[in-house]
Amino acid sequence: MNLISIVLVRTTHPGNIGATARAMKTMGLADLRLVVPKVFPAAEVTARAAGADDILDTASVYKSLSEAVSDCALVYGTTARMRSIPWPCVSPEQAAGQIIRSMSEGRRAALVFGRESSGLSNRELELCNRMIVIPSNPDFSSLNLAAAVQILCYEIHKHAIGDVLPAADKLPAVTMEDMDRFYAQLEQCLIEIGFLDPDRPRRLMRRLKSLFSRVDPDQNEYNILRGILAAVQEIAGRGDG
Amino acid sequence: MNLISIVLVRTTHPGNIGATARAMKTMGLADLRLVVPKVFPAAEVTARAAGADDILDTASVYKSLSEAVSDCALVYGTTARMRSIPWPCVSPEQAAGQIIRSMSEGRRAALVFGRESSGLSNRELELCNRMIVIPSNPDFSSLNLAAAVQILCYEIHKHAIGDVLPAADKLPAVTMEDMDRFYAQLEQCLIEIGFLDPDRPRRLMRRLKSLFSRVDPDQNEYNILRGILAAVQEIAGRGDG
């Protein structure tokens, strides 16, 4: 279970950090990552952790979400609301199954929880491969932060102790850093072929990221994609000269 | 969902009553019953309810558990620890299934949560038909009271709605014929940029089909992909001329 990270982004209330540590420990999770917490450490954090002090002691603090998830192969955003922008969505059960499977392949998964008030920003959302939508009352979907953590840790624990899924014989997946390099090259390439106007980018790159985040390519596929981009860029450069 | 009651027995911390109301409302439950709460009502209860005030306003207070569950057909105790005394035990999922079924027969079910410190007494336990055992870390099963309520309300809500993802407002997906046209254009394009040698195609197209079949693009994304290919082909043609 050490291959699953819980990431809290810009948490305002210290009590929620403590309650998150407690929720994690009750379900056997241990790796807590905090992106710019407003108050940490603090007495209220420790009080609400109610004995899960070891989770707090080993928690890491990061300056940005991208830094916090750079070593993760699978990054899940979380929400109890449906977003209007299209993004690949999974249920908590589906995510738990995927995470347990990826764990068995030695890949790290992160579950990212946004601010209490406003969730994740669009920029942060783009760092996520998928969104976990926690089913909730459409008229009152305001889940407490630590309660959302508790639900997802519970689903993961339930799947972990349940029937173990056989590991798929897949090549190692690429990391978020790899995908960032791919997106940068893709954007550059689209500019060079005249498909993307850098002065009027509209939502093209966000749409393409949403599309490729569904692919979750293995290393082989990743190399093919980058090779295609390089071939296009070579042709585009030749046309100019 | 009005046929499901959440019963808190001798709750010590007022914050837990508020957090319980919030947890219930996020999952569409409404009937809260309090057996001898230490502090109720209170400002802290309302603060932690975070907008679930209607649950608090209609909550009833009882002098004993037997009084609180007198109109219930099914009474579940709850614990995150295995008890040494023998009692019929079910998982949260099993309980949720039973409760949804009993609801459809017009029978009221109660979920009973004991004291923060010591759970339910043996006398209270005897008023329960069954125990719900929430799976947890055997070395740290100290679930927060409202977190336990959240998990069980989540399981009930999930069973009630059938674990379907809320419908994303996705554009119509493309057909297999559309994808065939896309693959033909992709292959042609890869030949034109010199990435694919038609005399030694190896497995490249099969790999790319496997990759894009995972994308399952909507009409909008499909148009973007074909537009990119067209732009590449135009550049490639220009280089030749």
Word description of this protein:
- The first copy, chain A, is an alpha/beta fold and 241 residues long.
- Chain A is built from ten helices and seven strands.
- The first copy, chain A, has helices spanning 14-26, 43-49, 53-57, 65-68, 92-104, 122-125, 145-161, 176-192, 204-215, 219-240; strands at 4-9, 31-35, 60-62, 74-79, 89-90, 109-113, 130-133.
- A seven-stranded parallel beta sheet of chain A has the order 3-2-1-6-4-7-5.
- In chain A, strand 1, helix 1 (14-26) and strand 2 form a beta-alpha-beta unit.
- In chain A, helix 1 runs parallel beside helix 2 (43-49).
- The first copy, chain A, is elongated and about 65 Å long.
- The interface between A and B is large, with 63 and 62 residues.
Silhouette of chain A: elongated
Span between termini of chain A: 54 Å
Specify the oligomeric state. Answer: homodimer
Radius of gyration of chain A: 19 Å
CATH architecture of the largest domain in chain A: 3-Layer(aba) Sandwich
Strand order within the widest beta sheet of chain A: 3-2-1-6-4-7-5
CATH topology of the largest domain in chain A: Alpha/beta knot
Secondary-structure blueprint of this entry?
Two copies of one chain form a homodimer.
Chain A lengths: L3 E6 L4 H13 L4 E5 L7 H7 L3 H5 L2 E3 L2 H4 L5 E6 L9 E2 L1 H13 L4 E5 L8 H4 L4 E4 L11 H17 L14 H17 L11 H12 L3 H22 L1
Helix pairs in contact in A: 1-2, 1-7, 5-7, 8-10
